[in-house]
């Protein structure tokens, strides 16, 4: 089995600031470069060894946490501050300033009154960490095994759709960042770039594919075949999005990115989907014609710009609009039942994880259906308003699963202490959502890397400060009710 970032692969492969750490003895000023990719020649990926906890630089620094602190404080001596704030509230505030109103609404928004997003936070806050003393924590191991891969840390990047709203390089920037940090990236069905482009940017680094189960079974089969060919190592089936939630921020702006042709790159790059869209384009138009307004013209341009091929040709062709309409028709099925999983099983050789579980009985059914893992998630509060905090659902599901398959967790994770709590309650690993979107907004791939490095650093320091030398030490007795 491959290591997280096996040497010899053409990977983007260094944590920003490693250069600084390793060149501490170089002439004054040499280590004072800002970490922004456009300004730091060493941030060009591909030069330095993998971000792996066995790397001597991590060991020499005394772990991930001290490595990251060292880089930031050393830069600080020269007056250089991190381009990506280390604490989430400021990260979000700064991202809000650089994103368009529609992009920010799409990323930050949750369903309805957004009370589930609040519940996610409250569930984490209700657990306090109780540090333990005088345990040897001089060497800390954050590594974890998932589906035959040893990962340097228990972090994954959650699938996030429509990243072109956030940064022009979208998913490809995230793919480069994930590969550089050895953190698996779960490629979304609603990505802004085809999975093959992300895979090409990732070399041998781990990626998974997230599936929204389309009404076209032929399209599902095509997605799965492409995901396997693109080197995805697991399939994540998101179950909580049979329809889009009631997203007040988007609704009030009248904003649905997909209707602008955004976030449908997996579809428009797919031969089965292209055939379906072409069939639709050949049919006579039915239904009301859209009013011709400046906004409608802008939408037309957006659809033509995002569709593959030259924009001028797309403007004249019925195909781009037919593609959007076809997508809106076949996006997701509402008639799926547990019985359908057997068919999915027969369609792929990849391990299957179900994402969106919140009830222990559903976890039991998932096990009975033979899945290989579950992800406890409420989609970051974006689907059901008034729902339970995701962390509150975790212990019951961990108990129901009883160690038979890995339980992953997401929704509301904002810092290393949050990761610590989820792991202490039995999650094998944690997926991060909005924080990396905001890093992407602020500094592209480098921003995503900084977010990963910060989370990993804070987790490492929290372990050091609570008497934990490895993830096996993270047990529920380290938590107390608030
Ligand atoms: C802007 C945005 C887009 C998302 N798109 C997807 C998606 O395409 N597929 C999916 O399974 N989950 C999607 N999610 C949910 C995330 O995978 C993850 O469950 C959630 O972000 C975790 O919550 P957090 O943002 O509070 O960390 C999306 C979340 C956000 C914020």
From TrEMBL:
Cofactor: FMN
Region (Disordered): 1-60
Oxidoreductase as UniProt keyword: yes
Gene3D superfamilies: Aldolase class I
Keyword terms of this UniProt record: Oxidoreductase
Coiled-coil residue windows: none
SUPFAM superfamilies, A to Z: FMN-linked oxidoreductases
Keyword Cell wall biogenesis/degradation annotated: no
Occurrences of domain FMN hydroxy acid dehydrogenase (ranges): 80-482
UniProt cross-references to InterPro entries, sorted A to Z: Aldolase_TIM, FMN-dep_DH, FMN_HAD, FMN_hydac_DH_AS, LMO_FMN
Molecular functions per Gene Ontology: FMN binding; oxidoreductase activity
Protein name listed in UniProt: Lactate 2-monooxygenase
Lineage of origin: Bacteria, Bacillati, Actinomycetota, Actinomycetes, Micromonosporales
